[in-house]
Specification:
heterotrimer; B: 258 residues; Rossmann fold; two-stranded antiparallel ribbon; 11 helices; 40% helix; C: alpha/beta; 2 domains; 7-stranded mixed sheet; 5-stranded mixed sheet; 12 helices; 15 strands; disordered N terminus
Chain lengths: 187, 258, 360
């Protein structure tokens, strides 16, 4: 399968961008894989945007900092503009439908448009849009098992928010369903 | 030969405490440091705590205090004696720890460390020798120099507009909740020496009880820096220093209600 | 649970370092908050009260380092941590500690400078760390981790070296390494025993008094002490050099980088090799003592050194001294908190090897 997957997750601060990366990283170590999680660095941290690079690999990771990505999960317009060109050829780009009005233009990559915020609002909890995005991503790229992701979610979500674990789990499932419905993909 | 016999017949009524080394002190004739060292070490001997005490020497005239005090000691960076003493006390909470500092060290460059050490209520004793001048570096103005006092860096006399006021740091410290016992003493007369000794003893007793910081200011002299004979300095202390820095307790345990 | 050796955790570099210090038998930590290393103080203030040791948030870096002086002089296993501006404030105290030969651990999670600078990663404090930093002739033992695992492991190594040589040891990290998360496996707690040294000021029970000082008024005595220190540094240089190499055997161009950039360079070597370029990498692990010999040996065999740093060019001077004119030494750096990318390094490599080699 995938030997190494270099993933960029980017959006506004508060969208749960860093947590998404952390969940992937925790899930990876639960499966005894190599992983690194690198939060935003450099001047792009200013202006309220945040990003992190998560790498999951079967072998020891050389650089935790890379500028070409196998996968990109993008939650706002400025981040799309910044990172669209950094997706490797034949790579994967997932973007949030309502915050990104000018969609990606590349044709040499796989692009998935996810109505995560709309779905989250329908589910009555707009904070779970990041989990919908993550669910969609994992449906296309099952880098880690769902059970590892749920264990990781429990680790990353502060204990005082653990009553929200079920709704987060539902959000992950909803994300997977969106892919199936819209892209007729079954893995 | 005959002299030795005579000595044997004599009764010893006064001797230097064993807690002082045999080194000759480098202090100028008439300097209060020598007296303060001796009294401090007398108390250490009388309380039998020579093997359970660690002292910290500052930068200033008493930088070599460790040459004279026959106890474990550290020499700290300028102004940081109370920080070093904090480090020692935190890892050796059952030992007695004191910092011995001058006015430049404690009340100028080390003001932050002084205030915060005491505000944390570190269970240490701070002995603060205030002679209103920088002795070691050759008689420059100290934060505690008196108004009008001529020093090598205030050659026309300390001027409020230019240099501000003498810093009564002991008064400030007395307001800190972490300070348990704050007193201002002197060592220029037999009576003041006796009181100073009692204050040192009190401070170590309180340290044993882990009550907070004990702080003893000693209003002292500097014959060389003041450009006076030792005898003249005694009058200067009485006439000039003590009106500005009056002797007595600023904070005693009864005021702490415990 | 905490002490199981096989236990693997995902942790930030700063937290891994702090956890490692507790497991290494840390007696006391004194520090002052500064980004990007405040997690270290936060971790200690949360963990130490539940476990063992002393933790104290000091009023400044100046106070912190002098508390370290006091506690190290009293024989404790002690450390502080800071980031660049705070480390500058500590330099006077570090000079005293080095002069008084007190073992301790200093951690600098370097950020971009000069001045207040930025909170992003940098290696701009290489000179300060490796050439002394404060006043006078002294050296720190400097270890440069490049992974979260090494942020843990080097704590043990640094305490061992500091105590072996009675010398302050520094872990020179950077903001990115402090903030990133990776897998880390911890050694068991209590695996690094600590004996209170006989020179410590612990109260003179049953022995002559001890005193800790760095003041010696007679120049003859002070020179003697300097000679003693220099001899010690020489011994350290002879015995404690550590480095790592990658693909240097057949290399024509060798990258030299420490810390996180060494991993970026590792990736660049992979990319270069894919293109058929014979690239290799030397990663100095100890920055003092500096791995002069391997660099000197390589300089006679290779066409180029390319030094990659997150500064304006500091370690490159040491590489030049080691190469001693045997081969050209090139430099590429980013500053102010910017990070270099593997592709940038590759581009630089290609630029260099395309240059015609001048024959004399």
């Amino acid at each position: 399968m995938y030997i190494t997957d270099e993933i960029i997750i980017a959006g506004f601060g508060g969208q749960g961008v860093l947590s998404m990366g952390k969940i992937l990283a925790y899930a990876a170590i639960y499966e005894n894989r190599e992983t690194s999680w690198m939060p935003s660095y450099g001047p792009e941290m200013r202006g309220g945007t945040a990003n992190c690079i998560t790498i999951i690999s079967e072998k020891k990771i050389s650089s935790p900092i890379v500028s070409k990505f196998d996968s990109a999960i993008i939650l706002n317009q400025p981040s799309l503009e910044k990172f669209e060109d950094h997706v490797k050829q034949h790579g994967f780009l997932f973007y949030e439908a309502s915050t990104i009005i000018k969609p990606p233009a590349r044709e040499d990559i796989m692009v998935y448009k996810i109505a995560a915020i709309e779905e989250a609002n329908k589910m009555g909890k707009k904070q779970i849009s990041n989990m919908i995005m993550l669910g969609a991503f994992l449906e296309i790229k099952p880098l880690v098992k769902m059970e590892s992701v749920l264990a990781a979610l429990k680790k990353v979500l502060p204990e005082r928010h653990h009553h929200l674990l079920p709704v987060n789990e539902q959000a992950l499932i909803r994300g997977k369903e969106l892919i199936e419905v819209n892209y007729h993909v079954s893995v | 030969m005959s002299q030795e016999i005579l000595l044997e017949d004599m009764q010893c009524v006064y001797q230097k405490p064993a807690t002082l080394t045999d080194d000759y002190m480098h202090y100028c004739p008439g300097c209060g440091h020598a007296v303060a060292h001796k009294i401090l070490m007398e108390v250490v001997q009388e309380m039998g705590i020579q093997e359970d005490i660690v002292g910290v020497a500052p930068v200033g005239c008493s930088v070599f205090a460790y040459n004279y005090m026959n106890i474990d000691m550290q020499e700290a960076a300028h102004g940081r004696a109370s920080a070093a003493a904090t480090g020692i006390k935190r890892v050796l909470p059952e030992k007695y720890v004191f910092a011995y500092q001058g006015d430049g060290d404690l009340a100028a460059i080390g003001t932050a460390e002084t205030i915060h050490t005491i505000n944390r209520g570190e269970n240490i004793l701070i002995v603060f020798i205030n002679n209103g001048i920088y002795g070691m570096t050759g008689g420059q103005m100290a934060p505690t120099s008196l108004l009008g006092q001529k020093t090598s860096t205030s050659p026309y006399g300390r001027d409020v507009e230019h240099n501000g006021y003498p810093l009564k740091i002991t008064d400030l410290i007395a307001h800190l909740p972490g300070a348990y016992y704050v007193t201002r003493q002197a060592v220029h007369t037999p009576n003041t020496v006796r009181k100073f000794k009692k204050a040192i003893k009190n401070a170590f007793e309180f340290q044993k009880l882990k009550k907070g910081t004990c702080f003893i200011e000693v209003v002292s002299n500097c014959p060389s820096g003041w450009k006076m004979t030792p005898k003249e300095t005694l009058a200067y202390i009485e006439e000039k220093m003590l009106p500005e820095y009056p002797l007595g307790d600023l904070k005693v345990p009864t005021q702490n209600n415990n | 649970m905490e002490t199981k050796k096989s236990e693997v955790r995902l942790m930030k570099g700063n937290e891994a370092l702090a956890e490692a210090a507790i497991r290494a038998g840390l007696d006391a930590y004194f520090g002052y908050p500064i980004t990007p290393q405040s997690e270290i103080l936060e971790y200690f203030t949360e963990q130490i009260p539940k476990r063992r040791g002393v933790v104290l948030q000091a009023e400044s870096e100046v106070a912190s380092i002098n508390m370290v002086y006091g506690a190290a002089g009293a024989g404790a296993r002690v450390m502080t941590s800071s980031s660049s501006p705070g480390m500058s404030l500590m330099q006077e105290g570090i000079s005293y500690i080095a002069a008084a030969e007190l073992p301790c651990l200093l951690v600098n999670v370097v950020r971009g400078g000069p001045g207040l600078g930025t909170i992003q990663p940098s290696q701009g404090d290489y000179f300060q760390a490796t050439k002394g930093g404060g006043h006078g002739d002294y050296r720190l033992i400097v270890l440069a981790p490049s992974s979260v695992q090494e942020m843990c492991d080097f704590v043990f190594d640094a305490f061992k070296l500091a105590e072996k040589y009675r010398n302050p040891a520094m872990i020179l990290s950077d903001g990115a390494l402090g903030q990133m998360m990776e897998k880390v496996e911890f050694p068991e707690e209590g695996s690094l025993p600590h004996i209170v040294p006989d020179w410590a000021t612990t109260g003179k029970k049953g022995r002559e008094r001890n005193f800790i000082t760095s003041l010696h008024m007679e120049p003859e005595k002070m020179e003697e002490i300097n000679l003693h220190l220099q001899k010690k540094y020489k011994t350290i240089e002879e015995n404690e050099v550590r480095y790592e190499t990658l693909d240097v055997e057949d290399a024509e161009i060798v990258l030299v980088a420490f810390g996180l950039p060494a991993r970026i360079c590792q990736k660049a070597v992979e990319l270069a090799r894919e293109k058929g370029i014979k690239a290799g990498l030397v990663r100095p692990i100890t920055l003092f003592p500096f791995p002069k010999k391997i660099l000197s040996d390589l300089s006679k065999k290779i066409d180029h050194f390319l030094v990659i740093e997150l500064n304006a060019g500091q370690m490159v001077e040491d590489v030049m001294l080691a190469a001693n004119g045997n081969c050209p030494v090139h430099f590429k750096g980013r500053m102010g908190g910017m990070i270099i990318q593997p592709e940038d390094v590759l581009e630089e490599i290609e630029k260099i090897i395309q240059q015609p080699i001048l024959q004399e």
